[in-house]
Structure formats: C-alpha cells, structure tokens
From TrEMBL, chain A:
TM annotation in the entry: 77-97, 124-151, 157-181, 193-215, 235-253, 290-308, 337-359, 380-403, 423-443, 450-469, 497-518
Keywords, in A-Z order: Membrane, Transmembrane, Transmembrane helix
Domain of life of the native organism: Bacteria
Protein name: Exporter of polyketide antibiotics
From TrEMBL, chain B:
InterPro entries to which the protein is assigned, alphabetical: AAA+_ATPase, ABC_transporter-like_ATP-bd, ABC_transporter-like_CS, ABC_transporter_ATP-binding, DrrA1/2-like_C, P-loop_NTPase
Keyword annotations of the record: Antibiotic resistance, ATP-binding, Nucleotide-binding, Transport
Domain ABC transporter: 9-234
The name this protein goes by in its record: ABC transporter ATP-binding protein
SUPFAM superfamilies assigned to the protein according to its UniProt record, in alphabetical order: P-loop containing nucleoside triphosphate hydrolases
Amino acid sequence: MTGTLGLLRFMLRRERRGLPWWLLGVALLWLTQSGQSQNLYGTPEDLAELRSTAEGNAAVVVMNGPARLLDSIGGEIVFEMFGFVAVVLALMNIFMVGRQTRGDEETGRAELIRSARVGRRAPLAAALALAGAADLAAGVIVCAVVVATGLPVGSSVLLGAATAVVPATFAALTAVTAQLFESARSVYGSAAALLGGAFALRAAGDAGSGALSWLSPIGWGQRIYPYVADRWWPLLLPLAAIAVLTTMAVALLDRRDFGHGLVAPRPGRPVASAAFSNAYGLAWRLQRTALTGWLAGLVLLGLAYGSMGDSMQQYVDDHPEIAEFLPGGAARVLDSYLALTIALSALIASAYGVSSVLRTRGEETSGHAESVLATRTSRLRWLAGHLSVTLAGTTLALVAIGLGEGVAYALSVSDATQVPRVVGAALAYLPAVWSVAAVGVLAMGWLPRAAAAAGWTVVGYCAIVSLFGDSFDLPGWTRAASPFDHTPQVPLDALDAAPLVVLTLITGALLAAGYAGLRRRDIGY
Amino acid sequence: MNASPEVALRVSALSKSFGRVTALDGLDLTVTTGEVHGFLGPNGSGKTTTIRILLGLLRADSGTVSMLGGDPWRDAVDLHARLAYVPGDVTLWPGVTGGEVIDLLGRMRGRPDRRRRDDLLEMFDLDPSRKARTYSKGNRQKVALIAALASDVELLLLDEPTSGLDPLMESVFQQCIQEVRKQGRTVLLSSHILAEAEALCDRVSIIRRGRTVETGTLAELRHLTRTSITVETRDPITGVETMPGVHDAVLETRHARFDVDTAQLEAVVCRLAPLGVRSLTSTPPTLEEMFLRHYGADPADGGAGGAS
C-alpha cells in the first residue's frame, strides 16, 4: 500500500478536467428534473393520475423503476432520475477505475510508477479511493441540489447515500474485471456489459414481480424508496457488494503477474479474412465498434421516447391548457411529440456523423493512413472507404432511432403501422444529418487541423438553433443556416421532398469540395 | 525530366517547408536500378520528408522528382503498385492482428505472396495472431518489414527499417536485403546505423539540413576524406605536420600519427619514404568517422573533403 496517498493526489490531478463535468452534469439533471416534476405534478391528484398511467404502461416502468415511487412528489423525481443517473455515474466509475488501473498497466505507465517506492496494491487502492471520493462528492451534491429545490432533508440524505453507494459498486466491480483482462478495452467492455445487465434485471423485475430487481445494484438503490418509505437497510446490500468485490480484486491482484490478466487474451486471426483486403473492409473494421455503440444508444433513446408517447397524450388530455403551446394543437399532440423527439434524436445522429468523419482524420494523424496511402489505395478510395461508414452509419443511426421509438410507440398505442411511419419520419432527417457530416469532410480537406473544432461547432450550432430557436427568438437567417431548419417536421408536417433534394445536393457538393482539398494537400499534417 | 532506364529515382533541387521550418533545401539524390542506396543523416535532416514526397504523401515546393519513370505526386497510385514502404515510425491499428496487417497491406499493394509471407514470419520469428496493441516496438517493426518484403515489387523505400530490432533480427534483415539485391531490385535505405549502411549499401548519400553533402560509393567517399596514418621511421621526422592536407599530427621524433586528406596521400608518402620507413599502417576512414566529420563540433570542417 506504500505510496497510495501520493498516487491518489496524482490521479486527482489527472482527472481534474473530466470529473467536474460529470458531477456538474448530474447536478443539473437533478436540478431540472426536480423543478419540472414539482411544476407538473405539484398536486396529489396529478400524482395519482400519473401513477395510474404509469402502472398501465409497462414501458414507463421498464425505463424508470417501480411505480411505488410515484406515491410522493420526491419519489416521482427519484422514479424519473435515479436509474438514469445511476447508469451515468456507474459509467464514470467504470472508466475512472479502468483507466487508472488496467489502462495505465497496458500503456506501460504503471510500470514506471511501480518501479518507484510504490506497493503492488497502491494503484488499485488509490483508484478505488479516487472513485469513492468522486461518488461521495456526487452524493453530497445530489443531496444538496434536491434539498435546495425544496425536498425534505432526511429523505434527501438517503437519496444522496444511494447516489454514492450504488455507482461505487461498479467501481469495485471494475477493480475485479481489471484483474481479469489484459486490455483496458475488455475491462471497460465487461464492466459496461454487467452494468447493462444490472439495468435489464431491474427493468424486468420492476415490470414483473420485483424479485429480479433485488439482483441489481440499481434496483437496491430504488428500493430504498426515498421520500416514500425511506428505508435505509437496502444500502447494506451495495456496501456488502463493495466489500466482497474489493476483497476479490485484491486477492486476484496478489495472484497475478504485472501486465497480465487471469483471462489469457484470445489470439486473433493469424490470416486476414477475405473482406479485410481494401479501404472499405478496413474502414468498417475500424469503425464498427463505435457504430454499434451509437446504434445501441440510439435504439434505447428511441425506446424511451416512444414508450412515453401515450402518457403524453393522456397528460395533455388532462391539462388542455398545455395544448396551446404545442405546434400541432390539441388534435395532434402525439404527432408534435414524435416530431420533436425525432428532431432531437437526429441531432445526436449528426454528432455520430461528425465523430465518424473525425475518426477518418484520426487515421491520418495517427500515421495509419500513411501506410495505406503508400499502397495502390488512392486518396479517393481511402476517403470513400471511411465515408461509406459515415453515410451508411448515419442512415442506420436514424433507422435505429425510428425503430426504437416506432416499436415502443406502436406497442403503447397497439398500432403496428406506427413503426414504418416513425422510421420514415426519422429518415427524413438523413439529408440534414449527412450535410452536417459533409461540413466535417470539407474542413478535413481544407483545414485539417481545425476539422474537429469545425465539425463540433456545426453540430453545436444546429443544436442551439433547434433547441432554443423559438425561446430565444433567434433571427430568421441564423435558423436558415441550420440544415435541420429546412427539414419538414414529419410526422407533424407533410413530407416535402424539395428541401431534402437540395440538402442532398449540397451534401454532394461539400463532399466533392472536401475531396478536392484532400487531394491537393499534404497527408499527415 | 526523363529518367534513363538504369535510374530508379532521381531527385534534384528538392525543397519543402512546413510553415517557417525548412525541411528540404535543394536536396539531390540519384538511385540507380538494382542498387542498395544508403540515405544517411541524423534525425531531422529531411530523410523522412524526402521519402514522403517520393510516396506522393507530401507535395514538393520546388525541384523535380522522378521515380520509376513517373511523377510521385501525379502517378502515385500506379507507382505504389511497384514499390513497398516501411515507415520510420510504425503505428499499427491496436485491435488488428499482425497477420491481418501484413495481409491487408499485401492485398492493397497487389499480388500478395502467401508462401513468402509465411517464410518471413518464420525468419523474423513473429506471432501473427497477436493484436497489434500487444506488440513491442521491435515486433511492430517486423510487421511492417514482413509486409514490405513479402511483396513482389521493383523498389523498396525503407525509412530506418531496423530501429528496435535486436542484433539477431538485424542480421536476418541484412540477409533479406542481400537477397533483394541479388534479384536486381532497388532499395533506398534511410538509416543512421552506419554499420548497417556499410554492410549493405552500394552507394550512399549523406544529407544534412535538407541538403545532400556527399554522395557516391563508399570507396569514392573515402577517397574524398582523410586516411589515418601511423608511421615509424629510421631518421627523425620533420616538417610533415606543416604539409598541406595533414591534420591532427602527433610527432615523437621517429614516430608519428596523423590524418591526411586522401588526395594528399601520395605527397606525404613521398616525403616519408627517404626517412626509411620501418612500419606504416594506414586506416581508411569508417563511415562513422566521415559522418561525424559532417556533423561534428567543428563546422568549418564540414565541407566536402579534399584540399583546404
């Protein structure tokens, strides 16, 4: 354990840029949710209505948690937020512990550290202490935020404790997987898969008898029922799990060699498959993992949006005054809701598009492109290989959104024809999403060093225009600069093909211009 | 410029700058077909920039380049079918195995030779089923070398290909290059390992700050530089230290040690002969000495050798 304190200080320093943002994000989530919920469900009648709606809608329970939480307004806020925030904070723990232990070991940095006067267990102890401190901070912050929005102190302390302890379970879990696998990627991957499993168990349990939820740390946290029953004893479960997992991690650490895991890495293919033979095969291989992740996330987001559609209609039926604020009026509440959520998801799809283009630029800066371009692969082919992923990947992203939202929505209203309708509506954004990615390609061609800044600026700009265009009353020309503003808001609006054709042509022109730049410039600078 | 058939590549007055940094400043280089040409210079002297221009990855600011009868920028893809390249800093995709990288690059280059690939894997003792993230620097280097050597091409562009290899693998590499030479293929070998260049190269070009300062066969280069002489005579030695072309003389009555510009060797020997030479050793300069002289502490000494 020698050197733990010094290492902890060093780790805090390395995390100082990322950690505050996680905590700030979590604080903002609770702050907005608490304000919004108290606004919407301020009266016991509203809450009772919500509870009867939620109990009749399995999708809502699956996404959020046990309906019993809806017995009080505080519980309602926990119902909406806790599961989601627990996942976010668990991911923070997984990445932090994985990075500081196996990640450093894999890159060889830990070798340098361990050659100094530092004990074998010190890096693990410091990483867990770091995660514990971050979780404690998250708990205190969440407790303070909800108290500040007017919720009772005693229950809020329980909520804060759950916020700290549940994600910390995943820090301890990552400490174990970090001993098992040699590559940091496998450590993150296995821990994230277990987190997904924990969420799924909780979802299945809450929708059923509740028994399965007791197998999930997220379920434990929700079963404290803050503001409803205020039980403290479920906190013992994650605490016990942390103790067991930490002991296991230390025992495994003591039995393994530095740099090695207990699971030997699977050997890869000694010979490349037939598909891995050109620029296209390479680009898909390099980008498929990231694409799969984005698609999974977008399907989940779509499911979440879609499952709430039906409740949205009921809510507006109960509060007709709200309908005035909806673009489609009371008659078309659901179409307004679908149009809005699809537009928001399409913005995320465009973020994926830009990240895919920047991956292409990353191939160049990392030196990989040099080896490829020194073969018979032309610059056009190299770019086309990666662009095929970007263009097809963004298409798949919109399909994922449409399918998730369409299927969940179709289930909640028992109307299967909604699936193709919602998928079609999502695909209407394809030209807009493509054009944003194409701006990234243009920047990569002419201002390669500024490509990342340019790509993300465009995404951010479109998001601001879409989200705040109305409330900030932005001038018309600022909106006209966003391709999303030219996309008809299907299914609320009729599908008008003309702007979509124009956006596709603009995309083509931007891609051609980007290639023209790439063709004439130095590679790798 | 039309390359004559026996010239594999010719570069003249090549210049390239990146912003305010001048990487190449009028570089000349000629490599004839079938030779192993050493391209020598310290880090940052412009070797890699030159090779990247030859690959059409960078665009020259001025000067002419012709390679295998084509223009590297305009005809990049056609020329790449006829050459193989080993980058100086081999970076591989971390999640892809060594075997897959070798196959991918071979297929992208065209005409992959599976037998040759497997032979090379064995010679270099590389496990092709491991993911690139687990390879050491030397193993990454082997992947790039095998990918290049397994392909049936006319020209090999090797940028410090043996950095990170152990002496055993270094000798395997030298065998492979000797074999390539026997097959009549051309090699441009950038290096700062001079023993390697001396063992392999027919001709060398030494560059400094983006310019070629010496070029020729090792014998020619030696002729232009100094030879170390140790001599013992019957009569006392006088006046040798003041002769033109003699440097760093240490005289002890009947014993002397000095360096002499090779062009002045005859005059010095004539002067020594009447003194009754009892023993004489003459050592031609090693490439290392030539190299150090160009980059040594004394910049006034840095010009092409010969009478000063």
